[in-house]
């Protein structure tokens, strides 16, 4: 709920509208300590307009203010501090949460408009990198967050499934490959053929000619080439899907680079018609000097089209197909330039909707402070990471709650959830270090800690065994205030996450709320028969609802017991 807005309205009224509500909202602060109130307005921003000392302004305004809905409003030096009426606030917030359950915090920013999210997008016949994994997890969470704000996300896996490398791959497979091998370990065997091709081609340049021949056959629709291409793609996708399944992530489209094969001519023609194509050393380019960018390569001298050309075709296709409100690309920071060029070329083509295209970059995962790369041998195999995380979770459950009924299922939710949460905990552009022990801990700022707090709330509710529907909340406990305030912030948190494309806004909030709730629980006995029992349970249930919903937005499960 937007209580800030309410404060701004009160201020605006007191200054007879000399400063608009919108202006005032931007000036309102949240004091560091709750003792200084819930909101503060620095009166010195009015000093110029009212030509008085800020202290005076603060004093005079407070006298004029309508105090309904507030416990008190007081002037302290040049500040006006606002204390919300805790009773009214708790009735309002907890009432809404119990009533709306997992719809609490829903917004209508998107009005049902579609938002394609280009995410994951690994390359066929190559291992999925940590970058692709981050893209998958961040993209999925953004889809959940946007859906909560009533956008309609479309999760697109823009597979790297086209290019001259397929010629090499086919050539290598025909010479050294076997069907069983590929079926058994698609990515491993295909990668192996590809590497071997490069090794042997060094001394046998005729191999490169054969590879070019194979790629030409593929482009010309030759039956065998097409069959192999499809098969490599399918087998690779099976391996990727294992990872997606474990993360519980699905896609709405697997239209990859190949999908745009028959849509490239139109782009080249459009660029030509608009007089944007230039020749440079035999290649066709679009000059982007006025954007301070390198030229965009559209067609190589041998006539083959490029990554950029496909992305231009894809952007246009998505605009036509989804009439998007925004179009997102969750791709590593190292491709920033590519997406700047993409937007610039679309702008040059006269498409104003290029402003609605957003590259959502992210940083690297490091280990021991070093970049993970396939070449250095420092690859973390994702499947193994998830297996180990689940194993560690299982151990901790065994220690803490050996009699738990569905231990295995819970361990999966906790182990996988821990890895996902860790990825989404830091601002996405930051690089972060991956230390499995750290990730799966039940204490500290981890996914399991939030899950555990949710399970604790659920266990209190089970013990109480009360139906709370229609309960009259009457909560007068200062210990509960921090938790209550946070619960009331939820919709503003969603709004901020949408505006910044930052799942970390949600994960940080979830940690914050879990901490506040655990502090409350350490100070206050919830299960005591007195007049406030049901109100306390309403608070506990609200915490459970909002923690579970926060985790869901991140793509993390919240077991009822652990
Ligand atoms: N396959 C590319 C890679 O692995 C990522 C594709 C990102 N999406 C896009 N539309 N360019 O680098």
Automatic annotation (TrEMBL):
CDD domains: Anticodon_Ia_Arg, ArgRS_core
One BP annotation, GO: arginyl-tRNA aminoacylation
Enzyme superclass (EC): ligase
A Pfam entry, by short name: Arg_tRNA_synt_N
Membrane-spanning residues: none
Location, primary (coarse class): cytoplasm
Cellular component terms per the entry's GO annotation: cytoplasm
Reaction(s) the record says it catalyses: tRNA(Arg) + L-arginine + ATP = L-arginyl-tRNA(Arg) + AMP + diphosphate
Localization per record: Cytoplasm
Sequence similarity: Belongs to the class-I aminoacyl-tRNA synthetase family.
Designated name of the protein: Arginine--tRNA ligase
Species assigned in the record: Ligilactobacillus equi DPC 6820
Source species taxonomy: Bacteria, Bacillati, Bacillota, Bacilli, Lactobacillales
């Amino acid at each position: 709920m937007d209580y800030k807005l309410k404060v701004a309205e009160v201020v605006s009224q007191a200054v007879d509208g000399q400063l608009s509500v919108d202006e005032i909202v931007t000036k309102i602060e949240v004091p560091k300590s709750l003792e200084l109130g819930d909101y503060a307005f620095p009166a010195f921003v009015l000093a110029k307009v009212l030509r008085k000392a800020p202290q005076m302004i603060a004093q005079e305004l407070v006298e004029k203010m309508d105090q309904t809905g507030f416990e008190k409003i007081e002037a302290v030096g040049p500040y006006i501090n606002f204390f919300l009426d805790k009773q009214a606030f708790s009735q309002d917030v907890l009432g809404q949460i119990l009533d709306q359950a997992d719809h609490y915090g829903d917004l209508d920013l998107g009005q049902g408009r579609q938002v394609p999210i280009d995410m994951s997008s690994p390359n066929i016949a190559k291992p999925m990198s940590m970058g692709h994994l981050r893209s998958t997890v961040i993209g999925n969470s953004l889809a959940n967050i946007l859906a909560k704000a009533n956008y309609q996300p479309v999760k697109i896996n823009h597979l790297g499934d086209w290019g001259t490398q397929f010629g090499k791959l086919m050539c290598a497979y025909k010479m050294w490959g076997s069907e069983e091998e590929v079926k058994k370990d698609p990515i491993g065997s295909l990668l192996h053929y590809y590497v071997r091709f490069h090794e042997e081609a060094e001394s046998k340049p005729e191999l490169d000619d054969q590879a070019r021949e194979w790629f030409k056959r593929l482009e010309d629709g030759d039956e065998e080439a097409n069959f192999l291409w499809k098969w490599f793609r399918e087998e690779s996708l099976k391996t990727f899907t294992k990872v997606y399944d474990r993360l519980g992530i699905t896609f709405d489209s697997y239209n990859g680079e190949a999908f745009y094969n028959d849509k490239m001519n139109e782009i080249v023609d459009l660029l030509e018609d608009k007089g944007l194509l230039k020749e440079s050393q035999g290649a066709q380019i679009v000059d982007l000097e006025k954007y301070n960018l390198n030229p965009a390569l559209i067609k190589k001298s041998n006539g083959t089209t490029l990554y950029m050309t496909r992305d231009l075709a894809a952007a246009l296709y998505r605009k036509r197909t989804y009439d998007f409100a925004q179009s997102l690309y969750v791709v590593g920071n190292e491709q920033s330039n590519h997406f700047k060029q993409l937007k610039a070329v679309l702008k040059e083509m006269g498409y104003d909707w290029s402003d609605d295209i957003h590259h959502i970059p992210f940083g690297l995962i490091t280990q021991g402070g070093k970049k993970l790369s396939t070449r250095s041998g420092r690859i973390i195999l994702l499947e193994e990471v998830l297996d180990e995380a689940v194993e560690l979770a299982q151990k901790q459950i065994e220690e803490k709650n050996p009699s738990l009924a569905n231990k295995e299922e819970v361990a999966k939710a906790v182990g996988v959830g821990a890895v996902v949460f860790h990825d989404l905990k830091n601002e996405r552009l930051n690089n972060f270090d991956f230390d499995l022990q750290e990730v799966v801990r039940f204490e500290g700022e981890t996914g399991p800690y939030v899950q555990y707090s949710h399970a604790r709330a659920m266990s209190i509710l089970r013990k109480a065994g009360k139906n709370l529907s229609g309960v009259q909340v009457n909560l007068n406990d200062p210990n509960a205030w921090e938790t209550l305030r946070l619960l009331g912030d939820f919709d503003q948190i969603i709004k901020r996450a949408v505006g910044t494309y930052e799942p970390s806004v949600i994960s940080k909030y979830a940690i914050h709320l879990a901490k506040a709730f655990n502090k409350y629980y350490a100070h206050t006995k919830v299960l005591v028969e007195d007049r406030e029992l049901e109100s306390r349970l309403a608070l506990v249930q609200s915490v459970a609802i909002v923690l579970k919903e926060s985790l869901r937005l991140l793509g993390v499960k919240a077991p009822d017991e652990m």
